[in-house]
Amino acid sequence: MTALDPVFAELEGSAAPVPPVVELREVARVFPGDPPVHALHPSDLVVAAGDYLSIVGPSGSGKSTLLHLLGLLDRPSSGEYLLDGEPTKDISEARRSALRGGRIGFVFQQFHLLPHRTVLDNVLLATLYSGVPRAERRERALAALDRVHLSHRLNFLPTTLSGGERQRVAVARAVVASPRVLLADEPTGNLDTKNSAGVLELFDELHDDGLTLVVITHDDVVSARADRRVRIADGRLTEVA
Question: Which of 18, 26, 102, 164 could tie 42 with a disulfide, CB 3.0–4.6 Å?
Fold first, then answer.
């Protein structure tokens, strides 16, 4: 099943409405202090299955706070975050961890690959905490690496790869569990122009396959690749026409 299959089911007459993959309802994050820091003002955001959304803003605009909330790494001070229609604000840490591992894929500016493990091992390790059945782990890891065009690098160490190839390994690791949404935080921040273009082309391919993408960046060129753009400034979200 692809990320778009539930949408097609609804269009074909399913009685149950399909919830957005991501829905923020008046979500805010305030850090205590004197005075308190309003890192994210009350915000609404809807990301439907198959969307490609970029969130663009400068340093200090609230991007990291928003990423932590979307990735279930932090809880909002107020409001509600629904992931696939499931409220997440008050659920247990165990449930949050399960949702993070099974429904959210992460790609970061720093690749966070284990340098002394092979490309295949780095992706296989991601299946241990993402709910992939043991019998399917190797097959899924191989399929993910093929999806990012790295089947010829399975037994290489990350230190022998280009920056673009290392980011592709990170993407494979992020999609191996078939997440509902891929969160990418400054995914081209450590790459040169050529490798950046390659990663963005890969994102286009994943989106064409039906994956829901949310890319957080300071770069207007990167953000312009998305179908929708939201700008964040001083903790406030504004949809870009």
Answer: 26
